[in-house]
Amino acid sequence: MGKKMDLRVIKTKKNIRDAFLKLRAENPPEKIRVTELCKVATINKSTFYKYYQDIYSLSEELENEIFDAIMNNFEDKNSLFTDPETFMKGLFLSFKKYEEMVRVLFSDTMEHLVDKTEKTLLVYYPWIRENPRKEIALSFLVTGISHVLLESRYEESTLRDSLAFVSKQIINIINMDGNPAVQFR
To answer: How do residues 46-65 score in pLDDT, each as one tens digit?
Structure first.
């Protein structure tokens, strides 16, 4: 009996999530009502509230899951300052893998995505907080890359290679500690 209950819970939560994503693709979270979501998911409100406090807790759970998937899919998290090109290519490919979900969940909250990315990378590089230049570089890179990825009008390989190249140049400047004699080609 316990297995059947687990399968029902899994199915119900999947229906709720699918309904939310469908509605979220068209509306920001603050415009999605539990009643509307329940109608799309074919559940009642008490079922929704059994699993989620509100729309925002559901949204946050999905955002965290997709962001964790992106970061877990990205093997070179520790190479930003040692091999920035590899780091950027890996981060780019990881975000591309989940691009559709990122666009749905973060379409009107780009600063939230940037903040999550930056905070996560600070877990891998806690010493950055002790060096303002490197912390600023990290913020600059994450914000710039996020913007370029979501607003890009370039071919994927050009975008990936250009982000990797520019990131390497920026990290090289930061690592020089005051001797920025780097050539951009």
So the answer is: 999 999 999 999 999 999 99
Reading the block at residue 4, the tokens are 């059947």
CA distances from 134 to 77, 119, 125, 170 (A): 16, 14, 10, 10
Rounded to an integer, what distance in angstroms lies between the CA atom of residue 54 and that of residue 122?
29
The total domain count for the chain is 2
Whole-angstrom Cα distance, residue 92 to residue 39? Answer: 37
Question: Do 9 and 74 have their domain in common?
Answer: no
106 and 168 inside one domain = yes
| pLDDT, tens digit (0-9, with 9 covering 90-100), for 94-115 | 888 988 898 899 877 778 888 8
Higher per-residue pLDDT: 63 or 175: 63
Q: Are residues 76 and 159 in the same domain?
A: yes
Structural domain that includes position 15: 2-52
Looking at the fold, whether 45 and 90 belong to one and the same domain comes out as: no
CB atoms under 10 Å from CB of 33, counted, come to: 12
Tokens of 13: 């939560």
